């Protein structure tokens, strides 16, 4: 048992099991499967990052194009509709048949 300074102490492990566990972890971490997994994760992260950046740029372009081209068109169509409604209202008040 280890020396007691206070609290509960656990029994020491034999040296050979400690060496085996360290050797096993080192062997596993250096295996081809682990390195392939790390490389795949790195490649996936790179692709996702590029995809998010390009999607953000495309959304910015689409949004600004909509504001510059489509919103003024919608406003003008609304004005035209209001003018038509006003003319129809005036025609009905004056008694002339609508066109």
Characteristics of this structure?
mainly alpha; single chain; 99 residues
Protein described:
Belongs to the Tom22 family. This is Mitochondrial import receptor subunit TOM9-2. It is found in: Mitochondrion outer membrane. The chain has 99 residues and is mainly α. It has a domain of 62 residues. The protein is 79% helix and 0% strand. The protein has two helices and no strands. The chain is rod-shaped and about 105 Å long. The mean pLDDT is 81.
Write the layout of secondary structure elements.
Blueprint: H1 15-29, H2 32-94
In a nutshell, what does this entry contain?
It holds the Pfam family Tom22. This protein has a domain at 33-94.
* Terminus-to-terminus distance: 106 Å
* Helix-strand string: HH
> Number of helical segments?
2
Residue runs with pLDDT of under 50 for 5 or more positions: none
Mean pLDDT equals: 81
Shape descriptor: rod-shaped
Query: What is the strand tally?
Result: 0
Strand content: under 5%
The rounded Rg comes to 38 Å
User: Biggest β-sheet, characterized?
Assistant: none
Category by helix and strand content = mainly alpha
- Helix amount: over 70%
Pfam families: Tom22 (PF04281)
Keywords: Membrane, Mitochondrion, Mitochondrion outer membrane, Protein transport, Receptor, Translocation, Transmembrane, Transmembrane helix, Transport
InterPro entries: Tom22, Tom22_pln
Family: Belongs to the Tom22 family.
